[in-house]
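testing teh design pipeline on a random one, pls ignore if ur not involved
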């Protein structure tokens, strides 16, 4: 449903709000497609200066809707919308700010590695259970997480699937600041407005200088996606995804 992603404007700030609270913002292919379009359109709009990602109270995102993955794992096709969104994140020309409250699983964690500022509430838990599902890291996280967390911190997050509290995430450099639940959106929008007020060309050059070359990140996302697609069709992933879906129904 298109209303699962709400696109709003607040001055020069474009807000991309994940809005599927009944499923804890599990992302469907249609949701990925709408977010990709929003990033592309916002980058092309000279009146938009900043992209902001928000979720709903208690859930930034519980990750990909696993029913989509199970379709591919059992012989179906699809999933290009996911990879298109990951590429849109990697290639975004304007600053990105996120506000995370509560559940942040899979892409709900790795999305923030692309953001220039991330704010989170004390009840937030970042977690990437890729390996537990017989899968591999995505969104360039195998490249970005070691840069942010160090190799062992990245292994704890991406390999062991350990949960990172907001406090631990802040200490590790995964997020910029921790704020109260009722102050999250205000803090995010205030930061976005401050960014939007900067000279845009100077800020773009400064941002580009601080980021890794896009070519390396894009190449890593492509490599991850090849492994991810292969793993989705593996016996390990099929068994893990089926067991997870069975537990959910039980």
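output:
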């Amino acid at each position: 449903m298109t209303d699962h992603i709400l696109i709003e404007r607040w001055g020069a700030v474009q807000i991309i709000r994940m809005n599927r609270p009944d499923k804890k913002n599990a992302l469907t292919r249609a949701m990925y497609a709408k977010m990709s379009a929003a990033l592309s359109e916002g980058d092309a709009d000279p009146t938009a200066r900043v992209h902001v990602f928000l979720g709903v109270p208690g859930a930034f995102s519980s990750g990909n809707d696993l029913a989509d993955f199970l379709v591919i794992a059992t012989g179906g096709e699809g999933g290009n919308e996911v990879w298109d969104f990951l590429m849109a994140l990697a290639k975004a020309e304007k600053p990105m700010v996120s506000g995370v409250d509560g559940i942040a699983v899979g892409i709900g964690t790795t999305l923030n590695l692309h953001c220039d500022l991330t704010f989170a509430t004390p009840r937030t838990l970042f977690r990437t259970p890729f390996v537990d599902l017989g899968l591999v890291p995505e969104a360039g996280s195998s490249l970005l997480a070691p840069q942010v967390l160090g190799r062992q911190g990245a292994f704890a997050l991406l390999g062991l699937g350990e949960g990172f509290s907001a406090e631990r995430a802040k200490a590790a450099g995964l997020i910029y600041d921790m704020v109260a639940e009722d102050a999250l959106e205000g803090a995010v929008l205030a930061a976005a407005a401050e960014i939007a007020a900067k000279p845009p060309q100077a800020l773009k050059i400064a941002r580009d200088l601080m980021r890794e070359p896009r070519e390396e990140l894009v190449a890593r996302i492509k490599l991850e996606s090849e492994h991810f697609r292969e793993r989705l069709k593996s016996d390990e992933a099929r068994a893990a995804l089926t067991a997870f879906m069975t537990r959910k129904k039980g």
